[in-house]
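Retry 2 of 3 after timeout on previous attempt. Resubmitting structure tokens to design endpoint.
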């Protein structure tokens, strides 16, 4: 399980890493784009400065040659005020100086430009890549510039307006514009080139960014398939299993750094684990009761229920009987009240479930009860606090063998997802149930047959086994309602009392007819033999139990307690061991009262029946000596119910 979590965690981390890388790459490329743009603007403005200056220098050279010519004319033709001569000569030298500087500056820059770069603030700005386009312009410019330079040199050398000077000045004036145009052409080409170079990087980065976006998209698709699809399938699976986020909120993840999603995944694994354990138990011959307990404990986290009950169809196929039940403590007395529940299927709405083989959801039992006829049984459920339930048929192959109820004390809790999951549970436990019923039925019915055999030897006590079973069950039920025993005596305990109390005298098979059927009082010797029936019965049942234990079962535990202990007395004067007080098992203490009460009220080969009142008196006289005084007290408390049962037996002639 933990390796699974880890690998999902790793996939998740890997994906997070990739997302971070892709996003930072995208941010970086945007940053680069800004930087490149800044750099281009910087280059552009510096190139315009340097190259533009060449045009300006050209104009300055033309202007200054013109000035030199003018000043020289003035000086030559003496057109000036004598006092002004100094001033004019100073201006001439200044202009000559400017002309020289302009020429040198132009020449210097031009030779650098021809090498493919300019220098600004000691930084080289290169445009080498533009050479191809620049060469033809340089060629034309070279020719003009060499003549231009020569003409300037003539002007500078002659210092007067000679023929040659005039020719040079004329050349300068005529070609000044061409030189200007070439400078501008060079500027245009260089700026063009700079722009293009930037654009190429621009495009490369844009392409990279697009590629990254494509990667991001592909990655998201991949992540979707690898991570989100499986998780959403898990979600779907979970909801099919009947799990919802809110159901699982109480499930704490061991790792704090797990995302909520992983704690949910974790929970699914936990649930799957529970299911696997359940399936293992089903294959291990675990008694059905334990399976039911396991289900009750393991799945209540995921599915809302506070009670699970199983009712089985009797052999006659007509009645249905509460057989197993497990409840939360919110449902007081549900188990005992359910123990009454044995009815004709056709009188209940359960018949529809049995016939159709389909589940039934009641999300509001109070409302439901108003509409249906099987009020008795639903009243028990309502009184115990049940408000909603899902009932499934328990089907083995195509035969419905009973029903299982999942119930809750809260209205409207059941949804479709729950049905799917619970149906699966119902279907998987039915096999275990079948095995259990089969084994137990076989064993119990063969043991009961043995007990009946004893009964048949003594026709006069005829229905003793049946009556004392009913009395035993009644006493157990009364006790289960008392604070002292409500956590000890549950539905199963009551059912076991009912099943096993008729086996209490099974040891009488070993008692000879002369003693067992003796019409009068037994001699001390005979009674000693009679007393062996308790231990002998326990021995027979223990032998059966040994065989069962090999299959991991312990069903005769209570039967042994009863057979062995039903003649022990509270004060320690009983047999076979002389156990005292609560050393005597509770089941045996219950059965001792039921057994004696029925022996007293019925005819025996050795005695006539006593009246009801006299019998009750004898029981009370034995309180604290023969019988558990607490049980006698509870027996008295419910004496009305005992009496009506007694009368029922009497008038039905089964006394
Ligand atoms: P059982 O007839 O089923 O009686 C069960 C128990 O009921 C007796 O256990 C005894 O505790 C009580 N009981 C029955 N009759 C009377 C009675 O008249 N007075 C009082 N106070 N209690 C009564 P117990 O005594 O251990 O006897 C066990 C079994 O032994 C009896 O089962 C019965 O089958 C047999 N048995 C006991 N006494 C006689 C007898 O005098 N003659 C014959 N033939 N059988 C006896
Ligand atoms: C029980 O709950 O004890 C038996 C099944 C039912 O009717 O709920
Ligand atoms: C029998 O007598 O056949 C067994 C029933 C009983 O006496 O307790
Ligand atoms: C039954 O088979 O009806 C009884 C089951 C039980 O006692 O638990
Ligand atoms: Fe007995
Ligand atoms: Fe008896």
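Retry 2 succeeded. Sequence:
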């Amino acid at each position: 399980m933990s390796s699974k979590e880890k690998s999902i965690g790793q996939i998740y981390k890997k994906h997070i890493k990739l997302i971070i890388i892709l996003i930072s790459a995208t941010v970086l490329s945007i940053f680069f784009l800004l930087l490149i743009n800044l750099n281009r603007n910087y280059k552009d403005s510096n190139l315009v400065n340097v190259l533009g200056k060449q045009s300006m220098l050209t104009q300055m050279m033309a202007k200054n040659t013109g000035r030199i010519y003018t000043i020289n004319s003035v000086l030559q033709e003496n057109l000036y005020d004598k006092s002004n001569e100094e001033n004019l000569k100073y201006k001439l030298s200044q202009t000559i100086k400017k002309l020289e500087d302009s020429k040198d500056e132009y020449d210097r820059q031009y030779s650098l430009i021809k090498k493919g770069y300019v220098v600004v603030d000691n930084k080289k700005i290169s445009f080498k890549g533009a050479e191809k386009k620049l060469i033809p312009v340089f060629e034309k410019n070279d020719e003009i510039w060499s003549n231009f330079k020569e003409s300037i040199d003539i002007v500078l050398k002659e210092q007067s307006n000679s023929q040659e000077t005039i020719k040079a000045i004329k050349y300068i004036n005529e070609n000044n514009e061409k030189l200007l145009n070439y400078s501008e052409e060079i500027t245009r080409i260089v700026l063009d080139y700079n722009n293009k170079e930037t654009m190429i990087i621009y495009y490369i980065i844009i392409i990279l960014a697009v590629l990254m976006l494509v990667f991001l998209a592909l990655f998201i698709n991949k992540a979707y398939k690898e991570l989100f699809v499986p998780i959403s399938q898990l979600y779907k699976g979970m909801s099919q299993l009947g799990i919802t986020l809110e159901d699982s909120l109480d499930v704490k993840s061991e790792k704090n750094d797990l995302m909520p999603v992983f704690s949910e995944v974790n929970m699914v694994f936990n649930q799957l684990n529970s299911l696997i354990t359940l399936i293992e138990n089903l294959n291990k011959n675990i008694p059905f009761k334990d399976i039911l307990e396991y289900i009750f404990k393991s799945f209540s986290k995921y599915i809302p229920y506070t009670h699970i009950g199983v009712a089985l169809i009797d052999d006659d196929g007509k009645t249905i009987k509460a057989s197993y039940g497990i409840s939360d403590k919110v449902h007081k007395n549900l188990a005992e009240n359910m123990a009454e529940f044995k009815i004709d299927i056709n009188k209940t709405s359960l018949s529809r479930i049995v016939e159709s083989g389909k589940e039934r959801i009641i999300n509001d039992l109070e409302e439901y009860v108003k509409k249906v006829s099987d009020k008795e049984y639903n009243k028990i459920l309502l009184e115990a606090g049940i408000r909603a339930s899902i009932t499934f048929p328990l089907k083995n192959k195509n035969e419905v063998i009973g029903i299982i109820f999942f119930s809750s004390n809260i209205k409207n809790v059941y949804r479709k997802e729950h049905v799917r999951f619970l149906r699966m549970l119902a279907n998987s436990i039915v096999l275990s149930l079948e095995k259990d019923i089969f084994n137990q039925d076989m064993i119990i019915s063969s043991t009961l047959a043995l007990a009946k055999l004893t009964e048949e030897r003594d026709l006069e006590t005829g229905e003793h086994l049946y009556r004392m079973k009913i009395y035993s069950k009644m006493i157990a039920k009364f006790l289960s309602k008392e604070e002292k025993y409500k956590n000890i005596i549950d539905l199963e305990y009551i059912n076991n009392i009912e099943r096993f109390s008729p086996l209490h005298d099974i040891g009488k098979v070993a008692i000879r007819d002369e003693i067992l059927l003796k019409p009068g009082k037994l001699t001390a010797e005979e009674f000693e033999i009679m007393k062996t029936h308790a231990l002998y019965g326990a021995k027979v049942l223990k032998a059966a139990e040994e065989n069962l234990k090999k299959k991991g079962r312990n069903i005769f535990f209570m039967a042994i307690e009863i057979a062995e202990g039903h003649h022990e007395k509270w004060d320690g004067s009983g047999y076979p061991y002389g156990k005292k007080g609560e050393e005597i098992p509770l089941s045996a203490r219950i059965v001792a009262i039921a057994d004696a009460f029925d022996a007293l009220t019925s005819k025996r080969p050795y005695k006539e029946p006593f009246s009801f009142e006299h019998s009750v008196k004898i029981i009370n006289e034995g309180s604290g000596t023969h019988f558990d005084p607490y049980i006698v007290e509870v027996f008295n408390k419910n004496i009305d119910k005992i009496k009506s049962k007694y009368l029922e037996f009497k008038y039905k002639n089964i006394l």
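Attempt log closed. Residues 511 and 529 are 7 Å apart (CA to CA).
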